[in-house]
Amino acid sequence: MSYGQIHETVKELARRVTEAGFDPDVIVAIGTGGFIPARILKTFINRPIYAVGISYYGLDNLPKATPQTIQWIDEVERKLSGKRVLVVDEVDDSRVTLEYCLKELLRHRPTEIAVVVLHNKNKEKRGHLPEEIRHYFAGRETEDLWICYPWDAEDIALHEDQARATV
Amino acid sequence: MSYGQIHETVKELARRVTEAGFDPDVIVAIGTGGFIPARILKTFINRPIYAVGISYYGLDNLPKATPQTIQWIDEVERKLSGKRVLVVDEVDDSRVTLEYCLKELLRHRPTEIAVVVLHNKNKEKRGHLPEEIRHYFAGRETEDLWICYPWDAEDIALHEDQARATV
Question: pLDDT digits over B126-154, tens only?
């Protein structure tokens, strides 16, 4: 996907979140994949962004035994308790990272948590959405293929050309 | 600037950081403007990203009396002490936010801090770089004008067309 396609997808997700009546107090970006979607989302739903870093894949791109926390929210109880939280990530793959993150966030008694992801891969999920999650928005449903995000491109001009060619 | 131009600028900044011999242990993204540059930078310099949220402008786009911390790094001493830190932001404007952030980070005794920004505005700076900062890289030097970043675009197709037209 090109940057422009990502931007349009996020804009559409913001519209769907708003139409569903979910008005967040804060955005939580799951890093590092959620950083760029979350920052674009802020243009359309202007709320403070808290970033958390969760790594489920090692440098070899293979999943680890459990997700590891790179960064968590400081003074998390004060920031989340009684708040409506919109969690943003780039891709819902095995759902393990998402479940881990949502369960950790739910411990701090937010009023509600909604989830937006750019892509949901249609596959058997090893992680599960906690029952407290009533709003879940995926920009696109995809097959279980590797998604080439523009921010990972070594050669962005080539990437953008290829993204345009595969629309 | 288009997303493609931002991506190219970050790639070039990564090359300059590497050529200067600065090999960071961690990246610190100053949010929310630094989130997108930092995530792109990670493609070229693959290190963990810690995000901090600092807001110096209110919803009216006017500067506040002092920068406000939206989020800070949890367990910051353990994460920064003895580390080489690469701080990333989108624009060095008045330099007040940057000075505030660098002084806070320096309290935790990193080995060294280097700074990269996409744009440095050539103007009288009210903030100053602490003397400990020996490496500072700006992708572009600009006049004191409002910079239209792609992530702020309501209409990304229009923005990208305009960015191409003004190269």
Answer: 999 999 999 999 999 999 999 999 999 99
